Amino acid sequence: MAESRPSLVLKEYRTLSEIRGPLIFLNRAAGIAYQEVVRITDPDGVMRLGRVLEVSGNHGVIQVFIGTAGLDLKRTRVRFMGDVARLDVSPAMLGRVLDGAGQPLDGGPPIVPAASLDINGSPINPAVRAHPSEFIQTGISAIDGLNTLTRGQKLPIFTLSGLPANELAAQIAAQARVSGPSGQAETEPFAVVFAAIGITHREVTFFTEAFQASGTAERTVVFINRADDPSIMRLYTARAALTTAEYLAFVHDQHVLVIMTDMTNYCEALREVAAAREEVPGRRGYPGYLYSDLASLYERAGRIRGRRGSITQLVILTMPDDDITHPIPDLTGYITEGQIVLSRDLHRKGVYPPIDVLPSLSRQMKAGIGEGKTRADHAPVAAELYALYARGRDLRRLIAIIGEAALSDEDRLILDFADRFEREFVGQGQTNRTIDETLDLAWELMAMLPRDLLTRIPERMLQQRVWAEPDDTERAR
Predict the structure, then answer these.
(1) Which of 25, 67, 369, 440 is the most buried (most CB within 10 A)?
(2) What's the CA angle centered on 164, arms 163 and 168, to 5 degrees?
(3) Is residue 6 part of a domain?
(4) CA 424 to mean position of chain CA atoms
């Protein structure tokens, strides 16, 4: 947090009227401003920070970052600092593990700030936004091959309780590369800003050990907000991570991948604050401004014309009650550019990562693939894989009605393809695949089918491949 501006006269009040949850209510406070930083001093002289959440005349609502325990109405002092909430940032944050307020958790020295930035960021002018069109290689075939991520894109991962979303997040953070033609790594600066929101101590240990073991800790900034931390800090953690990403991207020209997990915990904290303010609830009790609040985070991703840096977001959220129509995934899907959906059925089969490719989508995929970016065969191969796998899934449902004996030889081949696709293409384990390896594996799987079943790949591309005769193909597995 930045200190107050020395030219301002600081105002201090002892006119608290109510303490409710993470909020304190103040009367007879003149000249306060929305989002202004305050210092609250409890009866024991301990100082904590907060910010103005609402202003109405001479009344104000203040959000206390580390909770209101120990405060009382008569002896608590509130001092207004004349500035917005800020985060001290520096290139030295790379390789560090920080709490939600940007303070070191790894036992290292304090970070000497190079700048102090407003945690709310600055909206990117739409007139200077550059369209996402450059491929990012995550090493995950179901993402790189079928739901390609591009620089400046915001792509959420919808998971279910009990699925290995954290493992997937750590794997992507370790493997993600800024990639050039045919998946060749470029030498441009690249960094990962990882924000863990409302996670357990076991998960904290997992993430810190995972980054150390992968050897990528030096290019990663980790923000940790534990489940037993004040829930109000979850709102701060997400903004602190994005502020750091903006600094690295637009001041130091780095390509930054921001991974935030779990945004459901963020939204629960937002609902808690709204309930304490006695606001009229919207869908499922969430505030009516949930959409605009999430948009204020997601829209901080992007690229700016004339600048080399970029911010790409992978947002992980757990769908409550396995419901994709729940307000959190529903609104997130509207704001972002697609979604990656994890499947409980694939997880039960032992497939990792359990990505269900059929409901998954990347709206920026077409702009990030093709000749000179990935490979010329990328788009038709992806379309063919989708079509064949969707047909295999339909046949599985048909078997439940008519039985497997009624299937034709062609249907059996499609079923075998769908099984191998799940086991070998989606289920890659901890393997880090280049885009060339992903597309070559796709061709290997399609080679088990007769050529006349491949209707979405141009004939000129098929002629470049050696194909087995139909009789041999039926026996090939």
Answers:
(1) 369
(2) 140
(3) no
(4) 26
Q: Are residues 151 and 239 in the same domain?
A: yes
HSE, side-chain direction, 13 A CA sphere, residue 273? 29
Mean local confidence (pLDDT), 354-377: 93
Q: Evaluate whether residue 355 is within a structural domain.
A: yes
**Residues 209 and 84 sit within 8 Å (Cβ to Cβ):** no
- Domain co-membership, 262 together with 304: yes
In a shared domain, residues 30 and 120: no
State which residues form the domain around 383.
378-475
Q: How many CA atoms lie within 13 A of 319 on its CB side?
A: 23
Residues 211 and 352 in one domain: yes
pTM for this model (two decimals): 0.87
Percent of the chain at pLDDT above 70? 93
Using the 8-state DSSP alphabet, how is residue 279 labeled? P
Task: Please answer whether residues 234 and 266 qualify as being in contact, where contact means their C-beta atoms are separated by less than 8 angstroms.
Answer: yes
**Domain-ending residue, one of 368, 395, 420:** 368
Q: How confident is the model at residue 466 (pLDDT cuts 50, 70, 90)?
A: low
Which residues are CB-neighbours of 185 under 8 A, at least 6 positions away? 137, 177, 178, 179
Q: Does residue 2 sit within a domain?
A: no
My answer on whether 75 and 184 are in the same domain is: no
In a domain, 142, yes or no: yes
Number of structural domains (the chain) is 3
The reply to whether 274 and 235 lie within a common domain is: yes
Residue 311, classed as helix, strand or coil, is strand
Same domain, 161 and 204: yes
* Higher-pLDDT residue of 467, 152: 152
d(CA 92, CA 309): 18
Express each pLDDT in 56-105 by its tens digit.
Answer: 888 889 988 877 888 888 889 999 888 888 899 999 999 999 998 899 98
* Mean pLDDT for the chain overall: 88
- What phi and psi, each to the nearest 5 degrees, are found at residue 338? 120, -165
Which residue in this structure is represented by tokens 């991520």? 149
Tokens 């299937």, located at residue: 407
| CATH code, domain with 246 | 3.40.50.12240
User: Residue 78 forms beta bridges with which residues?
Assistant: 13, 40
DSSP notation for 422-436: IIIII--TT----HH
Query: Which residues, including other chains, have CB under 8 Å from residue 381's CB and lie 6 or more apart?
Result: 145, 439, 442, 443, 446, 457
448 CB neighbour count, 10 Å cutoff: 18
Residues 219 and 302 in one domain: yes
CB 453 within 8 Å of CB 392: no
